[in-house]
Amino acid sequence: MSSYTPEALEAGRLLFAGPIAFERGVVAMSDLPDANLPEIAFAGRSNVGKSSLINALTGRKAIARASADPGRTRELNFFNVGGRLRLVDLPGYGYAKAPKSAIARWNGLMRDYLRGRPALKRVFVLIDARHGVKANDLEIADALDKAAVSYQAVLTKLDKISPAAQADAAAAAARALAKRPAAHPYAHATSAEKLIGIEALRAEIAALAIPAAQPI
Ligand SMILES: Nc1nc2c(ncn2[C@@H]2O[C@H](COP(=O)(O)OP(=O)(O)O)[C@@H](O)[C@H]2O)c(=O)[nH]1
Ligand SMILES: [Mg+2]
Predict the structure, then answer these.
(1) How far is CA 64 from the centre of its chain?
(2) What's the confidence (pLDDT) of residue 103?
(3) Which CATH topology does 6-206 take?
(4) Which whole-number Å values give the CA distances from 45 to 70, 93, 96, 124, 193, in the listed order?
(5) Is CB count within 10 Å lower at the N or C end of the chain?
């Protein structure tokens, strides 16, 4: 477990209480916004809960379109949080209702982004609490280790497993990534539906943002 000071939790609350806007959907590396803010990306299998988690963090119901139809997110979607950082909703990997050539193109774009983006400060690798770390999560972890991009497991849909299983699931996810060079040792555990673990994740994110402007 990891704990956050009241100051860190307040910094997280304040960051997400301010203005947040969808900035752009990117389909090619040439469309990326200027790398003038830290970026935090959300990666994970289709349907793992990426868009729902971004909605929960921002407290806005549909800023990132969540969908029961897996694989609908085909772009890198950038959200500007108070001019202090960007959240990036990545295309889901795994199942998608699309031709193989299109899937290969999104995967290529995602890999190029993950490998070659100096502004990228952390990748949250979302893991369904019911299913644990899968082979394609480990492929992403391998790519991030190679590129020396810091990443961290975030369990989703915690409400779908029993309270007794919840602590074990987080520990198992952390264990599955342990000893990998770029992996963060602590796994977050969240539910977008029941708003579990959201304050802690906001605090984690706020620590990576550029500092808030001080009132004069
Ligand atoms: N019970 C539960 N369902 C969730 C949670 N997060 C997402 N879902 C559901 O899982 C499905 C996929 O979510 P979505 O955010 O679109 O996944 P994405 O494809 O990774 O962006 C939707 O039906 C969501 O309502 C959660 O924390 N708890
Ligand atoms: Mg989505």
Answers:
(1) 12
(2) 76
(3) Rossmann fold (3.40.50)
(4) 9, 5, 10, 12, 18
(5) C
Spatial separation of the C-alpha atoms in residues 29 and 113, rounded to whole Å: 7
40-49, 62-71, 73-82: the lowest-pLDDT one? 62-71
Pocket test for ligand 1, best of 42, 47, 196 (most atoms within 8 A of CB): 47
pLDDT at 102: 75
- Structure tokens belonging to residue 187: 């796994």
The 10s digit of each residue's pLDDT in 136-180 is 999 999 999 999 999 999 999 999 999 999 989 999 999 999 999
Residue 82, pLDDT > 80, answer yes
Task: Using DSSP, state whether 128 is helix, strand or coil.
Answer: strand
Residue in this structure with the two tokens 């993950």, named with its chain if needed: 114
Structure token digits, residue 26: 């990117």
Q: Which of 73, 147, 87, 158 is nearest to 117 (CA)?
A: 147
Residue for token digits 């060079």?
181
136 contacts 45 by C-beta, under 8 angstroms:
yes
Q: How far is CA 2 from the centre of its chain?
A: 18
Q: How many whole angstroms separate alpha carbon 153 and alpha carbon 131? A: 13
Q: Which atom of ligand 1 is nearest to the CA of 65?
A: 16
For residue 44, is pLDDT > 50? yes
Measured in whole angstroms, the distance separating CA 75 from the mean position of its chain's CA atoms is: 14
- Ligand 2 center to residue 7 CA distance, Å? 31
Residue 95 has pLDDT above 70, yes or no: no
Helix (H, G, I), strand (E, B) or coil at 21: strand
